[in-house]
C-alpha cells in the first residue's frame, strides 16, 4: 500500500513514513480502518512544519491552512492507494507561509505589494491555477488610487480629453453624472463610456469614476506649464517621486517611470535632478489625482552675442 502526495511536486511514498525522511508516522485511526478493509481509501492532512497530522481548514484562496501553525505552503494532502512504490526522492523543502494581506481576502501581503506596481495587478504574479482567485483584487485594481494601473489610466483619460475629445453628447452625460442631474442617453453611449472606464455601474445605476472626473477637468480647466524635478527613481516599482512646482513645491507626486523615459529619452537614474518641465492640473485636490503630461527637458537659453562688443553677454 502507498499514499500519494497531492502537491505541485506529486510523489508516492510508503504508508507510515514521513515524506523524504523515512521516519515512521505516528499511528492514527484511519490507518487501522484502511488496513482492516473498512475503507477503500482515506485522506489524511499532514503538516510538514508541525511534523504530524493536524486539523485543517480551507481558506478563501482554496488552499489548506493548518490550524496549529496557520501556514498554507507546508500543508499536503495524502490519499491512500493499494500499491507499493518506493520513495526515490530526497527531503521535501517548502517555502514558509506568508502573511495575508489585511486589505483583501484573496492575496498575501507580498503579492498585493507587487500587484500594485504592475499594470495587470496581482494576476501578473500568480500561475494560471490561481488566476481566478486573485482576479479583481481591490488592492491592485485600476480603480484604486495609488496603483500603477490607476496612474496609467489617469494619464490616458487626460490625453483623451486633450487629443481625442469624445464630443458634446458624451461630455454632457458625464457632467450630468458629476452634478447628479437626471440622465438622458438617447444615443445609448453609456456602455461606451463604461468601456473607457469613465463610468462604472453599481447595479443598474451609473456613476462617474475618477477617470471620468479627470476627463471633464481636462476639458474645462487650463493646464499649466511648470518645472518638474525627479527626486527618486524606483526601478522595481517602475515609478519616480517628483515635485511639480505649480502644484506644490514640497509635496511629492508619484509618476510612472516609463512615462518619464518615453517623453524625455532619459533612463533610470539619469532623470534625477535633471531640469524638466511639464503641464499639470493645478486644481488637483490630492497627489494621486495630479496628472502630468508633455514632459520634456529644459533647453538652456542660447548665449546672446553682442557683435559690437566682440563678445558674449
Structure characterization notes:
This protein is α+β, with helices and mostly antiparallel strands. It has a 5-stranded antiparallel β-sheet, with no helix packed on it. Helix 4 packs parallel to helix 7. The longest helix has 16 residues. The relative contact order is 0.08. The N terminus and C terminus are likely disordered.
Quick tags:
alpha+beta
How would you concisely characterize the structure shown here?
This protein has 313 residues and is α+β, with helices and mostly antiparallel strands. The chain has helices spanning 29-35, 109-115, 131-134, 148-163, 168-179, 190-195, 210-220, 257-264; strands spanning 2-5, 11-13, 43-47, 52-53, 56-58, 64-66, 75-81, 199-202, 205-208, 224-234, 239-244, 248-256, 276-280, 292-297, 305-306, 311-312.
Number of strands: 16
- Percentage beta strand: 15-25%
N-to-C span: 96 Å
- Give, in spatial order, the strands making up the sheet with the most strands: 2-1-7-3-4
Broad structural category: alpha+beta
Low-confidence stretches: 1-35, 37-45, 54-60, 72-87, 309-313
Quickly count the helices: 8
Strand count, sense and barrel status of the largest sheet are: 5 strands, antiparallel
Roughly how much helix do the residues carry, as a percent range?
10-25%
Overall pLDDT confidence: 75
Gyration radius from CA atoms, angstroms: 29 Å
What characteristic shape results from the CA principal axes?
Answer: flat
Order of helices and strands: EEHEEEEEHHHHHEEHEEEHEEEE
